[in-house]
Design a protein that fits this description.
Layout (H helix, E strand, L loop, with lengths): L3 E3 L5 E3 L11 E4 L4 E6 L5 H13 L3 E6 L10 H4 L2 H11 L3 E6 L2 E3 L4 H5 L2 E5 L3 E3 L10 H7 L5 H10 L2 E3 H7 L4 E3 L1 H16 L2 E4 L6 H10 L1
Parallel strand pairs: 4-5, 5-6, 6-8, 7-9, 8-11
Antiparallel strand pairs: 1-2, 3-12, 9-10
Amino acid sequence: MPSALSLPFGGTLAKVEDPKLDPPALVTSPGLSCTTLDVPAVQSRAGWASFLQLLSLADGMVVLRLRDSGVRDPENYLMQSELVSEVFEIIDSRPMFIVCVCNGPVRASMMTFPALSTVVLASRESSFGFPHEQANDVHPITQVALRRRLPEVVLRRLTLVGDVVEAVEAQRFGLVDFVGDAATVEKEVARLVHRNCAPVQRLTAPVADRETRARAAMLA
């Protein structure tokens, strides 16, 4: 016989057995997709057109590997084109996890890429800045992007004084998140890919219909 349960304001309610819930199930959720793109050197016109097309199709996690040598482009192609603005618009308008890998000099307009990235990894050989001979080669959107990562005082120092800073100092300023040798940087890339792109397994909570949950709450 079911036992009676006293209610706070009088009356009784028959107490039933605990509701039988569906057992939890193991569910696997896919991780983010991962795309690796080589960012071309400033002189590579054909490379920039291909890069922009691939970036517009990417989603999830994107690993950008900067391949610039830091040498000034005499034709100033990147400064005069709208490519940097289009890159800014694509990254700013879409929920992507951007990892920027720097293994050498990053100069002038190329500073846009670490500024827009979610995580910046740099080898100890990397350096960043706006040297005087490239002062007129900086795209206007670059300073807009850098304000996301750098304090105004640091940004003014880099652009007006023309300092070139090493990776460790760039990390202190907030432009770089991780510094190590080349092998350590690649291990960190692999760790980030595994963390964000590996499938995730979880147990679902026991399932019961609304009426059963309400009855269970009253009788608890």
